Amino acid sequence: VLYYSTSLFTAAGLEEWQSKYATLGVGSVMVIMTLVSIPLMDRAGRRTLHLYGLGGMFVFSLFITISLLIKEMMSWMTFISVISTLCFVIFFSVGPGSIPWMITAELFSQGPRPAAMSIAVLVNWLSNFLVGIGFPKMQEAFENYTFLPFSVLLACFWVFTYYKVPETKNKTFEEISAIFQRGVD
Q1: Is 90 exceeded by the pLDDT of residue 48?
Q2: Could you tell me the pTM of the whole model?
Q3: Which residue of 136, 152, 169, 170 is most buried, as measured by CB atoms within 10 A?
């Protein structure tokens, strides 16, 4: 969404100049919601926000797919596509955009933390790279169904987070380690 939002908005039926402004909106929403997520992490909890973020991204990736599929039938679906994309970015910013960085730092003690963070950064940027270079080919192959593979992955990530990722809010490393010893609550 972030790399190719202008072309997505153009494909959804917006004019080129409208697509550029919608992309500015995506960036602005992302910055604002990332700032909003900081105090929310301490109130709602990291795991809860991550689950909400993944769930919201899943729902709105389906809405994006539906709006792209029926945009020719109803002209107002272009705006649903833009709104769905903005909502997708909101949920990304509140959940998967910021939470994994916090959780990764909290899951490991001081000794292995730098190595764990390095691996997390490597996986993050490698995934970004693969999505960045692969998305145009996916768009070419899947056309309006491009977001469905991402929807499946989001559902898998939600299930993994629900069953395997503990809440780290207000917990010490020792408490988090004990949770892993007996299994996630």
Answers
A1: yes
A2: 0.88
A3: 169
Please give the Cα distance from 124 to 118 (Å, whole number).
10
DSSP string, 26-56: HHHHHHHHHHHHHHHHHHH-HHHHHHHHHHH
Residue 80 lies in a domain: yes
Q: What are 36-40's contacts with CB under 8 Å, separation 24+?
A: 36/93, 36/94, 37/93, 37/94, 37/95, 37/97, 37/98, 37/99, 38/98, 40/94
Structure confidence by residue, pLDDT tens digits, 79-116: 898 899 999 999 999 999 988 888 888 888 888 889 99
Dist. CA 79–CA 6, nearest whole Å: 14
Rg of the chain, C-alpha, whole Å: 18
Q: Does residue 89 belong to any structural domain of this protein?
A: yes
Distance CA 43, CA 51 (A): 15
Q: For position 95, which CATH number holds?
A: 1.20.1250.20
Within a domain: residue 185?
no
Cβ contact 120:82 at 8 Å = no
